[in-house]
Amino acid sequence: MNDKAGGDPTKRLSADSVRAELSQWIVEHWNPEMPLAEWRELLADSGWACPTWPICGRSLPAELGRVVTDELKRAVVPGPPEGVGMTLVAPVLLEHGSDELKQRFIRPTVTGQITWCQLFSEPAAGSDLAGLQARATLDDDGWLLTGQKVWSTGAATADFGLLLARTDWDVPKHQGITAFVLPMRQPSVVVRPLRQMNGHSSFNEVFFDEARVPAGHVIGERGGGWQVARTTLAHERRLAAFPAPPSQASGRAWREAIAERTAAAEPHRWYPQRAGRPDLVIAQAQARGVAANPVVRQEIARLIELAWSARWMANRAATARAGQSGPEGSLAKLASSRIAQQAARVHGMIAGAQGLLTGPGSVLGGTIAEILVSVPAISIAGGTDEIQRNIIAERILGLPREPDVSAGVPFREVRAG
Ligand SMILES: Cc1cc2nc3c(=O)[nH]c(=O)nc-3n(C[C@H](O)[C@H](O)[C@H](O)COP(=O)(O)OP(=O)(O)OC[C@H]3O[C@@H](n4cnc5c(N)ncnc54)[C@H](O)[C@@H]3O)c2cc1C
Fold this sequence. Notes:
Number of helices: 13
Mean pLDDT: 92
Number of strands: 8
Bound molecules: flavin-adenine dinucleotide
Order of helices and strands: HHHHHEEEEEEEEHHHHHHHH
Largest sheet: 4 strands, mixed
Helix content: 40-55%
């Protein structure tokens, strides 16, 4: 643990002093030919790895944290790993985890020694996540977990899972859920990759048959899993795309960091196509000689109108809420879904039946075909369009809440799924 000057209110740090201290430290410690793991240990020890955190960090305020991130980028040195461990699990452990869990898991996550997946969705608990039915029961040696999860990105390679399971069936559904750290590498955890209709295999089904979870691996309170889920989902909305490595990156540490990042980003390789690739539309219309067709032009104009108004709406919402996430996120999510659908429609009009082809000679090397079969995912992942409309209706338009037949009823008596 490192709690340097950021934790001491009497010592005032400026952006300049942080920048100067860090750049001096980099000069003294960075060697591009060192192993990545060794560099990450140094970053964690010094507190530059996660400047705003109390563990592997310096408890700096957010604005100085950004100074550190910028300076690491400017110096072209690798930082902590990208992905679920750093963006979801470690922040959740910092907020809800016991001291033992924090000490055990945060540092190896920051150094990239262990990897994570998120085990929330189930076949009958997607929109209604609180209706989940994976079951954890306590015995003398800890918890036994039985059930199934689905859509779990990275589960095939993860060392640990951030998991929600039902531990009490006699209280209303939100109150009987507990969050756990599940060790993935045990025989009673079986991971089966799913094959998507776009040919990629980004997600998995995960089956548990009396899988073991140590007693100390409960995150937060027993029965307090819904609070942990809400924290996780709030961080999930901020998940960013994997950044490209800097063009000047070279040496052993960077080679290892790029290999790690490429593997972690693999499940997301088709996400640009999922968003409909509106950026390709005009060039495609010109290339295929339909840019003067009035019907195509009208549909392109409709797409641009949607994209621009969504951008302006997002800017207005960001200014209004000054960094707080609110129901406006649902407007943005719904807008991105509408834009992707319209973009796919226009690509279909432009390419015609040839847009369905993949392989040699296909339009844009099969990218149009990938768009057409990937776009439906954006209306489902992260909350379906219908769920976003419910949120907009209730929380923005002030319409009556959807009736909830399970409110106040013990989960055992609720017809789940
Ligand atoms: C590409 C992709 C990536 C995903 N990634 C993840 C992930 O990383 N982690 C994860 O945990 N999950 C992930 N999911 C799962 C995703 O969160 C769920 O698929 C989604 O929440 C919908 O749940 P469901 O599939 O069970 O459908 P259901 O909830 O069964 O919904 C079926 C249909 O009923 C409608 N419906 C349901 N409830 C209502 C209601 N109250 N009012 C009106 N209509 C309703 C839905 O809109 C939908 O059309 C992913 C899904 C996809 C497609």
